Structure prediction request, 390 residues.
Amino acid sequence: MRLLLGIGGGIAAYKAVELARRATQRGFEVRCVLTDAARQFVSATSLQAVCRYPVRDSLWDQAAEAAMGHIELARWAEHVLIAPATANLVARLAHGFANDLLTTLVLASPAPLTLAPAMNQAMWRHPATQQNLAVLRSRNVRIIGPDVGDQACGDVGPGRMVDVDDLIASLSPNGPLTGQRWVVSAGPTFEDIDPVRFVGNRSSGKMGFAIASAAAAMGAGVTLVCGPVTLQTPNGISRIDVRSATQMLDAVLSACKGAHVYVGAAAVADYRPSSVADQKLKKSADVLELRLIKNPDILATVAALPDRPFVVGFAAETRELLEYARRKREAKGADVILANDVSEPVFDHDESALVAIAAQEEQLFPRQSKIDLARSVIQWLMPRIAGSSA
Ligand code: CTP
Prediction:
């Protein structure tokens, strides 16, 4: 989701950096706008560092207007969140002011507006503020909070900005995947040979994490089953860590009970050593032979369940991409296979390209960032999931 984060000038503005960071991690694309007063509390540099886009704070910035004019920015937003919304901002919004960049953007944007008020408890209780809020509510503006508690000024009462995680969660429940439960597997599996050695696949887990994060940002409840990876868990996702393919199978099968969608993005090791040595193997012979046995196919197992979710798999190929991928879809009984050309540099990269292969159609998703790719693929999957019997 493209989120325009407006930041008002209250002490709670210091939480905006964390808010922008968490929202970005959850798969939101965030652009920040500061009011004049907000610049006294939080720096544009910090915000820019977490969401990786220049921060806007003036209608009269010629360079910024040349890059993306304010009307364009207003149209770009899929949701506008103002946090913290001060008493002054609430008043200006209620009366339709357009006397700075943020209020102008709100008037020019058709996107839904959410406010997270934060102010002194007496200012919150004042009839002027309450009447302004009533006006905004009557225009379908969502007001979240404030919480009650200790205030920076020493007062106790209503006026604290709601918790950053709760704010982000409140943006997601109305997403297009609300009510769906997704299970995503990601990363490699490691198959132990002895206490210090293993065989495994190359996989950073980034594509699976991007799918999990984008699905959660669109409102799905997501369980992420992942092999050994070094990535941070996106917020709002329930993560189960495993090591081997058999552990991954158990975790996926139990998570898939009642799930709507399974996305097998993990690079599961096809074979595991027939036995695992208790002690470290000592080097002796010039040639060491390992006996490997086939691992269960997790994707095919899920696709064969009597009450199965919609099943999406990947096909990593170095040649004959489409041909192998089509065959994999049929052999494993998946609804969709996302074919991935791994002769290109994709491992550990932030970008990739995919071809989605379904029974009757195929769709190319050109090379782009993995998070954008995840979003586009999910958008494409949505009507197909809705139309399936899974
Ligand atoms: N997969 C799985 N369990 C396995 C092997 C693969 O669930 N034991 C899943 C992967 O998560 C992916 C899809 O099957 O969604 C295809 O994986 P890939 O490695 O491309 O194919 P393989 O079946 O391993 O075939 P091959 O290695 O011969 O290309």
